[in-house]
Amino acid sequence: MCGIVGFTGARAAAPVLLGGLERLEYRGYDSAGIAVLHGGAIRVEKVSGRIAKLREKTGDGALTPGSAGIGHTRWATHGAPTDLNAHPHLSNDGRFAVVHNGIIENYLELRRELIKDGYVFQSETDTETIVHLLEKYYDGDIKTAVMKTAARLEGSYALGIVCTDTPDALYVVREASPLILGVGVGENYFASDVTALVSHTKNVIYLEDGEFAKLTPDSIMVCDCAGRELKKPISRVTWSVEAAEKGGYEHFMLKEIMEQPAAVKAALAPRIHEGRVQLDGFELSADELRGVGKIIITACGSAYYAGCSGRYAIERLCRVPVQVELASELRYSDPMVDEHTLVLVISQSGETADTIAALKECKARGAKVIGIVNVVGSTIAKLADHVLYTFAGPEIAVATTKGYTTQLTVLYLFALYLAEKLGRIDADSYAALVKELQHLPRKIQQTIDMNWQLPKLASRYSSRSLFFIGRNTDYAVALEGALKMKEISYLHAESYAAGELKHGTIALIEENQPVIAVCCNEALMDKTLSNIVEVKARGAKVKIVSQADDVIFIPRAETVFSAALAVVPLQLLAYYAAKEKGCDIDKPKNLAKSVTVE
Q1: Residue 466 — φ and ψ, nearest 5°?
Q2: Is 423 a domain residue?
Q3: Which among 57, 70, 160, 346 counts the fewest CB atoms within 10 Å?
């Protein structure tokens, strides 16, 4: 959940590192630092707080000369976000500096060992053990020292290392944490995300677990865990740097909400041909699909709530039982999974630690796994038997919006594909639903356009705890709506199945209590309206998404796909409530974008 970046070339390293860290700040933003090689020494500058503070301290990099270096932006795990705990960390002899994304689970054991050997620690972090191990194992061969150090580490790590003995070189190694190499002309880079690289190069190499690389301005050498040199393919990043910039919007989150029509279209367009859903990257035969006894969807956070919505589409269209499980629970639950189970694993980054662990657990029990991810070359994309990309493009705001809607879109496509393969849907219904699915981008745009009043409405609801209610697909939307409100406005928000209100929760309803009722499922509208009347009778102020105080409208749509529309005004409501409160919308407190640690 941190961001790391490295550069070696002929130009000044510090400005490149600072720019890369700014693009990675969504991965962690409570402290930051850089280490640059210059004049036979390593100069380290680090601060608690945002990258802007580091820019000020280094004069936008001008005060930190040198043409090779590493940088880090942190989401604190071990130790408070202080200057001392910020990365990079230096070895006692000043020869090595290290940045680290991940968690070293056996760091206390290593720390005790190193203190006994005479090494002095300056921080509370797990990472500092790494740099002292490097010093301990170094005998003039850096590669051997790095590999020996990596062999002692338990947990997850992507490491960037510099050494004064090789002033133009960077060294990296990864295990269960993302790391990408950027291939330039006369300069090379590494980063934990391509967003830090695309302004300099679109040619990248994805490292695998256990791989080590040495980067100089003119070369990149990659080795496996045994030290054997590898020939790694160079991939091309297809999106532009403009896609990772605000483009005139006040916040990335608002930009990404507004990008949802285009993002959903990008997820649909390559997969619908002549009125039929075709899923490239999904190769199970009809016989194999008929052998599926149940489907498990597993994910964390908003991806889990996308799964909750998608479950209704799959069960309705395919008549196959679907369980939606939190990955953090599934991995420890001794799950009832076998070769007749199909597991859908959802993650925007493809690097979510709990989701990766759940994937591995299910695969070990014989299940077939489909990864639904946005990031090409991510860990989940590599581990899954099949992968369906969401094609959302870069999502920078910590609170996901287009990530959620594109995940949901892929689940809709999967539901239609599977229903046809299993013969569970007639030709006319299939054709009508495919056509309706193709209308989703236009209808999402209509949803945005017709709810211009949301900033004013949000101002009425930005100072109190809120309840979100709904039934069936609407309840799934309510779950995501409440999460969005909590994430970025810091308002207490809870979602409830509307039919459960009278079973205890209605005791919390009092005069002027804000209640957001999602009421887009036509088959259950009368039932939900009855629940709305119940809470209004007790003084609640009700806002309906579809007898209310305020109404938010969405275009009429097939119920099975309505969640993709109903969630959009709830995203906007949370955004404007957070703006009303003056919150840091793109970087909410205590959160990071990619949760790569347990």
Answers
A1: -125, 150
A2: yes
A3: 57
